[in-house]
Amino acid sequence: MQTGTLVVSHLEKSFTTADTPLNVLRDVSLNLKSGDSLAIVGPSGTGKSTLLQILGTLDRPDGGQVIIDDLNPFDFNERELSKFRNQHIGFIFQDHHLLPHLTVLENVLVPTLAFGKPNHEFFDRAKELLESVNLTSRLTHLPGQLSGGERERVAIARALLMNPSLILADEPTGNLDRKTADQVTAVLQELPEKHGAILIAVTHSQSLADAMQQRQELLDGSLQRLN
User: b/e string for 13-35 if b means 16 or more Cβ within 10 A?
Assistant: First the structure.
């Protein structure tokens, strides 16, 4: 089981516009540890996805600091940063981004391509993860042969393959019907305790937000804790 920490201090991010800078994030701070889950909610366009991109090291902040597992990933060069991201962070997207020509098992193994051909250990872990999301019977199926909920569960297994300490989910139930969304929510809810990871989910879904241990709203560039 993974152990990890996430410490975000006074994060700032703005974008240049025709008139004045658009301040998207203002003094955002977080402190999470293994087993924690957090839902970030708020209206569209408030910077939730921007925050997730920075936490995932896909974008850089203008100010403040992000420390993951006691390391500042933005101190690394691009090659080191890519390796860090691969090993410490798992991503679950609204659009699952499965490769259509690969089987379910092969899609889960995609993160290993950075190290060459996957070994038996990775194959065994991929199968175990797919079993944990009830997809053992789908190992050789292509994404086009799966339901929306099944594809999202493949994406969850893929995000867990490298045993990351931080899992970031961007509207993971946004494209699903209510029944399927509830099934995926149940899988997500188990991740922090079952795998020891930190889970942060950006969502408009009240049911998914309620399933997380903590809820915060991003409003006017700042996070505000909700009951």
Answer: bbeeeeeeeeebbbebebebebb
Per DSSP, the residues of the chain read ----EEEEEEEEEEE--SSS-EEEEEEEEEEEETT-EEEEE--TTSSHHHHHHHHTTSS--SEEEEEETTB-GGGS-HHHHHHHHHHHEEEE-SS----TTS-HHHHHTGGGGGGSS--HHHHHHHHHHHHHTT-GGGTT--GGGS-HHHHHHHHHHHHHTT--SEEEEESTTTTS-HHHHHHHHHHHHHHHHHH--EEEEE-S-HHHHHHSSEEEEEETTEEEE--
Contact status, residue 61 vs residue 54, Cβ threshold 8 Å: yes
Give the Cα-Cα-Cα angle 47, 213, 222 (nearest 5 degrees): 25
Q: Quick: pLDDT tens for 167-215.
A: 999 999 888 889 889 989 999 998 898 889 999 999 999 999 999 999 9
What gap in Å lies between CA 184 and CA 191, rounded to an integer? Answer: 11
CATH of domain 5-225: 3.40.50.300
Over residues 84-109, the pLDDT tens digits come to 999 999 999 877 789 999 999 999 99
pTM: 0.92
